[in-house]
Amino acid sequence: MARPSIVWFRDDLRLADNPALRAAIDRGEPIIALYVLDEESPGIRALGGASRWWLHHSLVSLGERLRERGATLVLRRGPAERIVRELVTDASAGAVFWNRRYGGPERAIDAELKSGLREQGVEVASFAASLLFEPWTVTTGAGTHFSVFTPFWRACLALPSPRSPLPEPREVDGIRRSMASDALRDWDLLPRHPDWAAGLRETWEPGEPAARRRLRAFLEDDLATYDRARDEPAAGATSLLSPRLRWGEVSPYTVWHETVTAGHGGRFLSELGWREFAWHTLFHFPELATKNLRPEFDAFPWPPLEPAHLEAWQRGRTGVPLVDAGMRELWTTGYMHNRVRMVTASFLVKNLLIDWRRGEEWFWDTLVDADEANNPFNWQWVAGSGADAAPYFRIFNPELQAKKFDADGHYVREWAPESLGDDGPEPLVDLGETRTAALAAYEHVKRAA
Ligand code: FAD
């Protein structure tokens, strides 16, 4: 009797370059494609609102694409370990395949499942698909992990080049029996009361085909000017691949190889390198979202939270044009340009003196690319407490940043037009005074170092 293969989709919602799916096809038995919404396992971070929106649409797309090729996507909700075990038993599955995850709680679940299922005689195999370099393969001469980006990336580039991407399968031989599946709408991933997702719908098309189109358009239209224009928020010069990489609608291997083929990609590839660095840092420091990577920052004397200041920042009502523009872009579209992410984050942490964790949580909830590694990693980078972080005293001046990177005001005019001109709102805080206060607070960190 056939013992089907389960392909457990996680952060890899694609058919092309999906080694777990490829392994199941090669095994030759009928396939069950599974996605588990896990909101219960200990330590798993609940998805933010914008992420839930993206996930819903990406699952619709994946489900359709599987159906066209002969398989059904089974949806189940619950603690992943129990759900996968139950499905193995229900379907008398002979094998389970997945692509690896690198967060602490996720790894614990996967390791437990792997050993448990193998003891039952079920074949289990996992694959590298979400990172170009496995975290345990990139080490310093002393065998430790890197805390500075440049030598980290140099070490990555000295390793064998990332493998070629696997082609997209034309057929996926799904199991004939119908398997119980949740209805996606019952997961309530889309906001309803109120429906705040209009701006997301206008901005994005989740799913693998749109991700591939975006990659191609970026390589054809923007790669050549990327180095020069990538810091200008109004230029539309970056790839907008971050949510697609977050959800695995396109694989980093595909992005890597197509960029190398298109040429001129060094700077762009090194941004993919920052993504690798963030994930490797999370792998070695699973508490990245809650704990300072540099413990001397535990001594930072955060003043009591002023909720009105946090809210003004969240809503884009600080009276600082570039900050307000960025926060409104985020609220409306689920995305913010990288330069503006740095400026808004610096303003929260160093001008409003609000703990980086509050900002990280807001981004986590509102970004469509909210990523377990990239988000806290970059927040800690801005706050000064992270790996290869900006020195604390480098406090972005949002006015100078606007002059430099949005010189003709296109970006601010789009998102916060009322702040241009003489009768714009007053800034919530004085940039100079708060900068001095932040530097004084930093003295505590220096003493603790
Ligand atoms: P491109 O410039 O086209 O870069 C290509 C890819 O490289 C990106 O899609 C992304 O995967 C990766 N990348 C680029 N910059 C970085 C970086 N600094 N760190 C890690 N990876 C990078 N990125 C996320 O993907 N998820 C997050 O949750 C996230 N939170 C951030 C929070 C703060 C405070 C800051 C300052 C940055 C954050 N970033 C995050 C990094 C960066 O802002 C986005 O990856 C980038 O703006 C996405 O746009 P893009 O795809 O057009 O980038």
UniProtKB/TrEMBL annotation:
Keywords: Chromophore, FAD, Flavoprotein, Lyase. PROSITE patterns: DNA_PHOTOLYASES_1_1, DNA_PHOTOLYASES_1_2, PHR_CRY_ALPHA_BETA. Residues 3-132 form the Photolyase/cryptochrome alpha/beta domain. The record marks W302, W356, W379 as: Electron transfer via tryptophanyl radical. Its cofactor is FAD. FAD binds at Y226, T238, S239, L240, L241, S242, F268, D369, A370, D371. The keyword Disulfide bond does not apply. One of its GO terms (molecular function) is DNA binding. Binds 1 FAD per subunit. GO terms for biological process: nucleobase-containing compound metabolic process; response to light stimulus; response to stress. PANTHER family: CRYPTOCHROME, CRYPTOCHROME CIRCADIAN CLOCK 5 ISOFORM X1. Belongs to the DNA photolyase family. This is Deoxyribodipyrimidine photo-lyase type I. The lineage of its organism: Bacteria, Bacillati, Actinomycetota, Actinomycetes, Micrococcales.
